[in-house]
Every structure is written in C-alpha cells, then in structure tokens.
Amino acid sequence: MDKKEARKKSKEARKLLSQEEIEDKSLAIANQLLRMNIWDKLYYHLFLTIEEQKEINTEYILQILAGKDKEIVISKCEFATLGMTHFLLTDNTKIKKNSYNVPEPVDGLEVPDVKIDVVFVPLLAYDKQGNRVGYGKGFYDNFLRKCKPETIKIGLSFFHPEEKIEDVSTNDVKLDFCVTPEEIYRF
C-alpha cells in the first residue's frame, strides 16, 4: 500500500466513527499510555485535536500530563518553511485555529526542539515497521529530525497498522511506538 492509499483508507474509516466512539477510543488510548514506561521525562509535546478531521481527542492525555506535573509543549505551524515553533502550554496560552482548523498557540514561551523528551505524533496511518503517514506536508518529519536522538516518538491511532507502506522516503522519521485503544506497538 502506498501513502496515498493509506491516507484515503484512514480518512474513510475515521468518517465512519461516531463522536461517542472517538471519545471512547481516545480515552482507551490515554489509558494505554499510562501503562508505558515514559513518565520519568519532563518535556512532552502534544498535538491539539483537529475535530473536523475526527482526530484522537488529546484532552485526556493533556489531563494526564497536567496531573503528573509535566511541561506540556504545543506547536504552531510555519507554512512558509514547513517548520514548527514550539511553545510551553500555560494558563495564559491563547489558542486559535489556523486556516486548516489546526488549534495553535498564538504566542508564548518558546521551547527548542532539543529540549523535548517525548512527542505524541498525529498520523493517518502507519505500518508494522513504524513508518508513519501524516497529512503529507512534512511538518512532523521536519520537527522530529531536529529532536535529540533519544526523544521518544509515539504515534496515536484508532486503527491497527498496515502491513507495509511501500513509498517510504529517507526523509520520513519512524515511530518508536504506536498506541491504539487495544494495543501498544513497539518498533
């Protein structure tokens, strides 16, 4: 299966999910994360949910991170460079949706890529080798390449992996884990 097919298949499967199923599966993913040995770190990068794309509701993960007194980092996309600027999420952070409905911080305290210990990575599809398929712009691959080598990359998905994504490029950054409502995949 190539990336285009994987994107299409995942988007169609997401469309079939009810709001209640999204909430139940999102909560199950958050509970799976609690079983992982990742909670001794300090800086955790989390994407904010694009509701229009029926993404995982990351609010549950946000609550876990806040409850564990972790530093939560969120990003703003820089479309001119396909890069991301990361900001510490605080009580004063103002969030605004960009033109693609991505919730982003307006501004705040900037956090360098190399400070981030764990990244929860959005995705549309992934395979049994840890290759990820996103929306296709390369924001996360560009970001993950700048992180330190030991940064833990955790994909979050409602679905099981594809057998193999055929058209993987050398610019694609593999996941270390992918967490679904039912299982934790380690790559």
UniProtKB/TrEMBL annotation:
Segments passing through the bilayer: none
Entry binding sites for ATP: K3, K4, E5, A6, R7, R132, V133, G134, Y135, G136, K137, G138, F139, Y140
Gene Ontology BP term (one): folic acid-containing compound biosynthetic process
Positions of substrate binding: I50, E55
Names of the cofactor(s): Mg(2+)
One annotated GO molecular function: ATP binding
EC number: 6.3.3.2
Keywords for this protein: ATP-binding, Ligase, Magnesium, Metal-binding, Nucleotide-binding
Catalytic activity as recorded in UniProt: (6S)-5-formyl-5,6,7,8-tetrahydrofolate + ATP = (6R)-5,10-methenyltetrahydrofolate + ADP + phosphate
EC class (word): ligase
Signal peptide: none
Matching InterPro entries: FTHF_cligase (IPR002698), FTHF_cligase-like_sf (IPR024185), NagB/RpiA_transferase-like (IPR037171)
Family: Belongs to the 5-formyltetrahydrofolate cyclo-ligase family.
Protein name: 5-formyltetrahydrofolate cyclo-ligase
Organism of this sequence: Flavobacterium aquaticum
